[in-house]
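Recap for those who missed Tuesday's class. We walked through two folding examples back to back. For each one, the amino acid string is listed first and its predicted structure tokens come directly after. Nothing is annotated here on purpose, so try labeling regions yourself before you check the end of the notes.
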Amino acid sequence: MSPYETLPLPHTETSVGSSDTVHPLLQEHAITRNGFLPETQPLGRLPHPYYSPWESLVGSLAASIQDRTLRPQVDRLPVLSTEYLTTEPEWRRACVVLGFLTHGYVWGGDVAAEVLPPSIAVPLLAVSDHLGIPPVATYACVNLWNFRSTSPALDLTDLDALHALHTFTGTRDESWFYVVSVAMEARGAAIIPTMLDALASLTARDLPAATAALASLTACIAALGALLARMDENCRPLVFYHRIRPFLAGSKNMAAAGLPNGVFYHEGDGDGDGDGDGRAGQWRQLRGGSNGQSSLIQFLDLVLGVEHTAHGNSNPDKPQEMSFHEEVRGYMPAPHRRFLQHVAETYPGGMRQGVAELLEGGRLSVEQGRLQDAFQTATRTLAEFRNQHLQMVARYIIIPSRQPNGDQGVNLATASSRLKTESGAKMATSGGELTGTGGTALLPFLKQSRDETSRAGEFPCRV
């Protein structure tokens, strides 16, 4: 029996962003009127004076990186407890502060720092454990919880009224790069309950409602693309590639950038798991912040039934190999991760499967034809959005990688440019491809994601 006949989601009576109330299912998973963004603006400072050392350092982060004084300042920091963090906004603020300090410390020198000192590692591990995310600067850290709006109506889709609370470079370019994603998340907020309703409407075989919802989804994706296209207004490709992008890199697949073993999270002196030098802790290889960690984009995939496989997984002995999209859910805030899992389990195959079931049989009725057209238009629009992203990668990463920017030490940018210059083809990964900040082979991954999206709209689809 089809899941569309047995597991309907509750009907959504309100829309995110247009009411003072939010669907209980969304509330349960920390999804607000602003979608996956918080209900209120993120804290600009931890209220307890105990955390002044952190706040002082992150407040001068760009200058400290520029004059190469960040690492000695971090080394002198005391190991602060998390006991004075009392609310979720405070925990999220601590994550932002420690995430920026972590990446500034690791990448803010002539060579990458392979050891993260206890002053950052110990509290970061505690904060990340509380939030249910890895101890690294995730998409949530640099985007979802790192913005301020000057809009009188607190309209988070107003890109010109947004700015980032913290950056590594102190540039308008970096702030703009982050808040474009913030505006996109806000713009996509209202589509979340709309598409939950659409899934439920398939259960009731309400074809006009499902068709209308898909039309709304198409308009939403187009609006996301329009916001993405504004990146060029205030973020220069060379500044992004050479100055901003290196700080977003994680420690996974970063051997060419100076981290062959990842980063050792030093938790103090002592026995037990450690580096064999009397230091307690653990070597970790973690993905850096990436738009692939956006819960909104993965929600759209789940709703449409886009299936992503592990890149290059043609080994029949490993049919269950996890795809990148599945893996990076572990980098999302825990409630958002659970929400995506709920949708995936409740509606396996998303609307693609539901639409295919409704279209089975003989000649399509007028309503069935409209539903099929609406679904294929939505999937085509999402594929075009991914193609737009590919074109932006060419402008912001591929072309700048051919233009070395002097001696900047060793990081993701210089390693990529150096290897390309030396080989003419190989980039900064073991597989010879340019590496994304999330540790993937960038172009093959993005092309595969686009093609998988296109395939989701192909019919007939028999289930």
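Example two. Treat it independently of the first, because the proteins are unrelated.
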Amino acid sequence: MRFSAYDPGEFYDELYEGTGQPRPESTLLLRKFASLAEGELKKRQQAAERVILNMGMTFGVYGSDGGHEQIFPFDIVPRIVTASEWEQIESGLAQRLRALNLFIDDVYHEQRILKDGVIPSELIYTSKGFLQACMGLHPPRGIWCHIAGIDLVRIGDGRYYVLEDNMRCPSGVAYVLEARQVMKRTFPELFDAYRVRPVDGYPNQLLETLRYLSDLPDPTIVILTPGIFNSAYYEHSLLAQKMGVELVEASDLVVVDGFVHMRTTKGSQRVDVIYRRINDDYLDPLAFRRDSVLGVPGLMESYKKGRVALVNAPGTGVSDDKAIYAYVPKLINYYLAEEPILPNVPTYLCSDRRDRTYVLEHLDQLVVKATNEAGGYGMLIGPQASQHEREECARRIEADPRNYIAQPTLALSRVPTLIEDHLEGRHVDLRPYVLYGQTVYVLPGGMTRVALRKGSLVVNSSQGGGNKDTWVLS
């Protein structure tokens, strides 16, 4: 296999500076690949896929015709992040999470930011993530978002930008943990040579974050899952196993005398902390959706009285709204009196008349996103869309402008990816995971999502994307 012919093209490439010119940090990796016998890298890719199959590393695709569960696509060529790059990412993410927590707390209490006119009140009250039932709530330790997955992209200037904030129930960390195990088996000698920072401490860090929310010396912690048909059930199960906590469904929990109890083979046991992987609307049929069979009746009342901790806190989704995202640089400035370390991608709010006019006139150049959708759904990539698709999108924007934002079509950075028996560039983003407990902890690495389809900018697994291991160097 020859790598000297690899062409990074006009995009920023994470491993190459130019044709046949590896970046200093990737030289060792690419030299190792070049030393392998013809066809050996492909054999190792296939071996890695067999390991993933045996691990049962799957994800669910809603509405898929080919069966519910799919093996998570994985590419053997890792992404490399230098120590100095990671230092900036780490401090930028910690800054962002602190500011967003202060914002959520303010929104549900004094609302200073609205009174000072920094963000329009209407944007908050029309957000699907804003819950009136959470007004005046005091979550344990004053923390609303304990677990965040914040998506980053790198573009032609080599800088990292925040693409979006996932503050409700961010998924994907299981694939980070398992991808690392696969890569260690596949290239053990490279890990010794590179001094890659480990990721296997995440479950312990998560457990400490959850324990911090209880005053008890040994609190009972559970993960609340919607069940085996949820797309992230594999992750719920893996994290419960690695932390040594119970994985429960709503039918396993009951509120008695204001406290949450878990049904066990030995009788009833009080639960102190719930890491819930269920959206706000379904948490408690008495407080939110009455038709929910995934939630626990009386859970919100128990939470309000401080008798159980919920992670993340209900109402956190107001900061997840893609229209609120546009204001995060101002939030950082307002609450922390600091400039953002990681910039936002320029964003047009369709709820703003001037922005909307610009978006409708430039749909062929922009990416349009629904403010409360995830997984790549509700998105239009203007340059790749047909005239009919753009006209349909324009109609949706005019009918409900609050529900849409637009951003420039970004030239996402690429990483060499094994296609058949050779390397081709594929676009990537990066989702680091951030925990907020006694301190802010950023998992060194995160999920590098890769658009496996040639030319595609959509990295979501539900839309044909896959995963690469992310090597943060010591």
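Answers for example two:
The chain has a mean pLDDT of 93.
Residues 45 and 76 are 6 Å apart (CA to CA).
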